[in-house]
Amino acid sequence: MQTHQAEDELLPIPLALPIFAADAISSVAYATEAAMVVLLTAGLSALHIALPISIAVAVLMAIVITSYRQTVRAYETSGGAYVVARENLGTLPSLIAAAALLVDYVLTVSVSVSSGVLAITSAVSSLSSYNTGLSLLAIVGITVVNLRGVRESGLTFALPTYGFILAMLIAVGAGVGKCAVSGCPHAVTPNPIAPGVGAVTVFLVLRAFASGSSALTGVESIANGVNAFRHPQSKNAARTLAVLGVVAITIFIGVSYLAVYTHARPSTTVSVVSQVARAVFPAGSSLGWFYWVVQIFTFAVLILAANTSFQGFPRLSALLAHDRFIARQFTNLGDRLVYSNGVIVLAGVAALLVWIYHANVVNLIHLYVVGVFTAFTLSQAGMVRYWLRTHGPGWRWRAVINGIGAASTFVVMVIVVATKFTEGAWMVIVAIPIMVIGFYGVRRHYTRVLRRLAAGAAAVAAAPPATNETLLVVESLDGATDLGLWFARTISGGEFRAIHVPLSGTDPGIRPRWFHRVDGTPQLEMLDGRLGLGEAMLEQVWRLPRGESEFVTVVLPEEFRTASLWEQVRHRSELGLKFRLLSEPGVVVADVPTVADRSAPLPERLVARVLVAGVDAASMRAVNYATTLGIDDTRAVHFAFSAEHGRTIRREWSDQGPRLTLEVDAAPYRDIGGPLLRYLRGFTSQPGTAVLVLLPELITPGWRRLLHNQRALYIKRLLLLEPGVILASVPYQLLR
Fold first, then answer.
1. Strand blocks (E) in 361-423
2. How many Å apart are CA 277 and CA 168, to the nearest integer?
3. Considering only CA atoms, which of 445, 513, 439, 499 is closest in space to residue 470?
C-alpha cells in the first residue's frame, strides 16, 4: 500500500472494538479463574469470595475506563501512558511507563494464546500434550495476519470477537435465568486442583484481587491507538472505551457469579469457563451443542486477544523510536502500512516466553499485571498534572476523576508487587529499570551521532578539494578483473596501482600474463602472501595519506560462477576484506562483480549516482568523493516515501546541500529496492553504459550497529550482481 493510503486504513468503531478491545473482553475467560486459584489455597469454602473480589475488580475497571475516556479526549493523536507521562511528568516517568507497557504487551500475547489453547484442550483432552506447539503456531498465525494490515486484521478478528461476546452473554443470561427459576446447575470438575488448608487472610484476599485484576489488561491499547480511529478520532476512541467497559464488566461479573454458584473450581485440565458452560448447557440437552459454541469462540477470542498487543506494542515502539529511545527501525512502515519490525519483535519474544514456560497459564500469570498497573498509575497521575496545568473546561472534576483513577491503580500496583513478587513478578520489576537504562543509552548514542553528523557536515564543506588514489586488487585474470581494470582507469585517469597477493591456489605466472594484458602499464605489485589478503591490503592502505579530502579507492573485482546466494557466501576472503576496509578512515571500497555465464563487452560510458538520505556529513562526504572521479554525468539521487518527504529533501538540499544536482524519485511503498532498480536500469539498458552507485555508509562499532537501518546491506545485496552496476561504499566512521 502506498503511503498516502494510510487514511484508508483508519478504523470505524465496529472494526476498532475487536482490534483494540479483544484482550480486555476476553480476559474474563481467565481472570475469575486466576483469583480462584489463589483462594483455593485456603480451601473450597474460600471460593465464594471470588464474587466480591470480582465486583471490586469491576469497579476498578469502571474507574480506569472513565479516566481513560478523558485521556483520549485530551490527547487526540496518542493518549498512551508514555505520551501523557512524557508531557506532564517528565522523561523518567514516561520511560518507566513505556517499559512497563512493552513488558505487559509481550505477556498479554503469551497469556492470551496459552489460555486460548487451554480452552480448546479443555474440550479435546487428547490435544493437551501439544499445548506449546499449538500456542507457537497460533502466534505465527496472528503475526502473519497483522503483517497484512490493520484493516484486514480487523475484518479477520471481528467475527470471533463479536461471536464470543454474543455467546458469553447468552451463556450468562441462560445461567442466571436457571439460577433464578430452578436453582443453579452444578458444574463437574475433572482433575481438580487440590485445595489447601490455609486460613482466609487479608493477604490472601489481596493476592486473589491482584490475580483477578488481569481483567483490566488491554484498556491501554485504545489510548495508544487513537490515531488509528476514523475522524473524529478522540470521540470514536472514547465511545469504543465505553462499549468495552459495559461489555467486559457485564460478562466478567456474570462469569464470576456462575463460577461461584455452580461450584466450578480450578482444574489442571479444564478451564472454569468450560465448566460453567457445560453446567449451563449439559450434554444430551437440546442446547448441549451451545457448549461447543462457547468453547470455540472462547478459544478464538483468547488467541486473537493477543492482537491487542500487536496493535499497541508496534505503535508504542514507534513512538519510542521517534524519540530515539530505541532503534529507529521501529518507525519503519512495512508494505501494508504496519510497523512490521515491532510486530516481528513482539511475536519473537512472546514465542520465547511460551516455549520457556511450556504455555502454562498459571506460571505466566504471575508475571502479568505489574506492568499494566504501573502504566495506569503514571498515565492517570500525568492527567491530573495536565488538568492542573491547562485549566481546561471542567478541569476540577476531571482532575478528581483522574486522581481517583491514579490512586486506585497505585494501590493495586502495590498489592500486585507485594503479593506476586516471589511468584515471578520480581523478574518484571527487575526488567523495567534495566530497560529504562537501555533507553537512556540508546538516546545518548543517537544524540552523539546527530551531533557528529551535523558538525561533520561543516568539516566536509570546509575541506580543501578532494584527491583520490586508486588501488586495483588483482586476484586472477578473468572477466571481473577486466571490468575492474576498465573502471580503475576510468576513475583515475589511468593513474592507479595494481596489487596482487599470492595465496595458495593462485596463478604463479600471473605477473607476466598481467604485463601482456595491460601492455606493461601499470606493473603488477606483488605483496607478501604470508600476511593473507586482508592484512596485506590493510598494510598498503596504512601507508597512504587519508583524511577528509584524501581518499583511497580499493577496487575489488569478483567473478562469481553463478548468481546464487551460496556462491556469494563462498567468497569469504573478499567479504572479510570489504568489512575490514570499511572501518578505515578515507577508504572507499568499490565492488566490481561479474557472473561467469553472463558475458558482456566492456562499457564505454560511466555515469555516477550518489544515493543520499539527507544533508548530513555522510552524504556530503560521498558527494565530495564523487568530485574526485572526473565522471561527467554525476548527480545525487534520493528516493522519497511521500510527496511531502520529497519537497522537504529538495528544500534542505537547496538551502544547505553541496552544489551537485539532486534528483528525487518516488518510492511510495517505502521500499527503495524496486524504484532503485528501475532507475538504474534506465541507464544500463543503454548500450555501453555502466552506472557507479556511490553509497554513503555509517560505520558504528559493536552492538551500536543494530541501532541503525541496515539499508546499506540491503542495497549491497540488491545490486551486487545487477548487470552494468558497480557499487562503491563511502564509509563515514563513528568508531567511538
1. none
2. 9
3. 499
